[in-house]
Write a structure and sequence with these properties.
By secondary structure, the chain is an all-alpha fold. It has a single domain, classed as MazG-like (Helix Hairpins), CATH 1.10.287.1080. The protein contains 6 helices and no strands. Helix 1 packs across helix 4 and helix 3 runs antiparallel to helix 4. The longest helix has 25 residues. The protein is globular. Bound molecules: phosphoribosyl ATP (PRT). The site of phosphoribosyl ATP has 10 residues, from helix 1, helix 2 and helix 4. Keywords: Amino-acid biosynthesis, ATP-binding, Cytoplasm, Histidine biosynthesis, Hydrolase, Nucleotide-binding.
Amino acid sequence: MSNRPLDQLEATIAARQAAGDADSSYTAKLLAGGVEKIGRKIVEEAAEVVEAAGEPGEPGREHTIAEAGDVLYHLMVLLAHRQIKLSDVESELARRFGMSGLEEKASRSK
Ligand SMILES: N=c1c2ncn([C@@H]3O[C@H](COP(=O)(O)OP(=O)(O)OP(=O)(O)O)[C@@H](O)[C@H]3O)c2ncn1[C@@H]1O[C@H](COP(=O)(O)O)[C@@H](O)[C@H]1O
């Protein structure tokens, strides 16, 4: 098993999903709320990371790291809810390598 923190977090989320004990696990509680509850948290945390990124200096940088952690965690819970693996998202990102974001946007409007 990989010791990459994102892989370890994915495994923990999967274990909480399997146990389904919303009384002892925040992850299980979120999962029980479905797309609506998880999505609300992602939107909330996304706004917080953007706000933190606008804060100056090292405190702002540290705050941004903490809020980015919250966004990634909640996004991973949403992926687990939809039975999507981190590797599925990585494959999608790898597929885009070498493709300019501007070119991709232009190809969509053709
Ligand atoms: N990485 C995280 C993580 N990041 C953030 N959070 C939680 O996300 C919530 C952030 O929401 P807020 O700051 O808005 O706090 P809140 O107001 O209490 O949240 P709400 O009740 O409004 O949803 C807090 O409760 C945090 O504790 C996380 N909860 C869990 N994990 C990971 O998931 C693992 C399993 O956690 P449990 O499922 O709780 O056992 C943990 O060991 C961690 O590794």
